[in-house]
Design brief:
23% of the residues lie in helices and 31% in strands. The protein contains twelve helices and 19 strands. A hairpin with a 2-residue loop joins strand 8 and strand 9. Helix 2 packs antiparallel against helix 8. The longest helix is centred in the N-terminal third of the chain and has 11 residues. The radius of gyration is 22 Å and the shape is flat.
């Protein structure tokens, strides 16, 4: 009974966590798209299409990719994302450290080249004009190379030899989520709170595709729908779009622009540090508490802040076990309530004469003041995840609207 209860509890927040994973970073191996019409394909049901994705065993591909993310963050957030991800020369791996690069996927548009040959060899290259950054997994070695700075980050995976070929998911986690894993996580999360249908057919990267459409049945979610374009022949997800309930351009738009399912040449994954390059050795498995290294290179934690919040969903309130965390609601309307145990509220900081003027201005710029049966607080908004921080030290966060957070805070004060 305890196991079943735990499974039900996990299912209550599975959809928002999966969607947050889509937004955050996930898509280091997922690319952007080109839609060129609606091909004539045999009719399929949503269940048949889900089964087609689940049955896909494609492990070799190469191609071009693009990902665009618009979370509606403030203009200064780009720098904060890089810093929170470990950006700049101050991190252990310098400019070649993967943390910063994947954190940057949380905003803006990025062009990628991708390749994979089974669970032991993958490569993704971020293309920025003449400058490139490559993240390469080849057997027991993981390399990061920044061509502009001529810096190299290297890590040996102590488990690679004994686990080779046996743990595809752990390996794929290195480079974020593959298109297959990204879609399958969303599909697994779909339940009674989700309407699943087959949308208009599409062409993505020159290949005919069905479109699986997931929509929240509940009101109050910031998510309008998730659209997954599935290769009509081999079941590989070719494109993922996360659309906002408020309309406008997609929150995340990621898909192949060019793809070839032939096995890439072996030398695609070969890497030798260039002459004169600065090489930094990482710890096997990654530094403690440092998401984005080795086997801990997971999409969700790569998005600054979300890992800390969702990491506490075991009820311990975060990795240090401080505070109290409770899951409210279910499905797309799930909200996490976290009692931070903070000694001082935002209101106290604002009213404290010792708080610098600049700090008060910064607090005022972060979010809108709100009030309700719970008291007073501030709403911190993005197009996907919103948070209400109350003056008594509680945080309500989820892929839900401002009104939904206020209602939850009032009902669960």
């Amino acid at each position: 009974m305890a196991t079943n209860a735990k499974s039900r509890k996990a299912a209550r927040y599975a959809v928002p966590v999966a969607v947050a994973g889509v937004a955050a970073a996930t898509v280091a191996m997922v690319p952007a798209f080109a839609n060129a019409g609606s091909p004539d394909l045999p009719k399929v049901t949503a269940q048949q299409l889900i089964e087609k994705v689940a049955a896909s065993d494609v492990e070799q591909f190469s191609g071009s990719a693009k990902i665009s993310t618009d979370l509606g963050l403030p203009s200064f957030a780009g720098g904060l994302l890089g810093a929170a991800g470990g950006g700049g020369g101050g991190v252990a791996g310098g400019s070649a450290d993967p943390q910063e690069k994947l954190a940057r996927l949380a905003s803006g548009s990025h062009t990628l080249r991708v390749a994979a040959d089974g669970p032991d060899r993958q490569k993704v290259t971020f293309v920025d004009g003449k400058d490139e950054y490559s993240l390469i997994h080849n057997g027991a070695d993981v390399w990061g190379y920044d061509s502009k700075a001529n810096e190299v980050w290297h890590e040996k995976d102590a488990e690679a030899g004994k686990a080779a070929g046996k743990d595809h998911k752990k390996t794929a986690d290195r480079l974020g989520a593959s298109p297959q894993e990204l879609a399958q996580e969303v599909l697994k999360a779909a339940g009674p709170t989700t309407d699943i249908s087959v949308g208009d057919n599409a062409q993505v990267a020159g290949r005919d595709a069905y479109q699986l459409v997931l929509k929240p049945k509940q009101s109050g979610s910031t998510v309008g729908s998730v659209k997954i374009a599935v290769d009509a022949k081999n079941g590989v997800p070719l494109r993922v779009q996360l659309l906002a309930a408020e309309g406008g351009k997609p929150i995340v738009d990621a898909g192949f622009t060019k793809v070839d399912f032939a096995r890439p040449a072996a030398d695609t994954f070969a890497f030798t540090p260039p002459k004169g390059a600065k090489v930094t050795e990482g710890k096997a498995g990654g530094p403690e508490g440092g998401p984005g290294h080795g086997k801990d290179f997971k999409g969700l934690e790569a998005f600054p802040g979300l890992g800390a919040i969702t990491g506490g969903m075991d009820g311990k309130g975060g990795k240090d076990g401080n505070g109290d965390m409770k899951v409210l609601g279910e499905g797309w309307g799930t909200i996490a309530r976290i009692d931070t145990g903070a000694g001082r509220s935002l209101k106290e900081l604002e009213n404290d004469k010792n708080t610098p003027k600049e700090a008060k201005q910064f607090l005022n710029s972060l979010g809108d003041k709100v009030s309700g049966g719970f008291g007073e607080g501030r709403i911190f908004k993005t197009r996907l995840v919103n948070a209400l921080i109350t003056d008594d030290g509680k945080v309500y966060v989820g892929a839900v609207t401002k009104d939904a957070l206020v209602q939850a805070a009032t009902a669960n004060k």
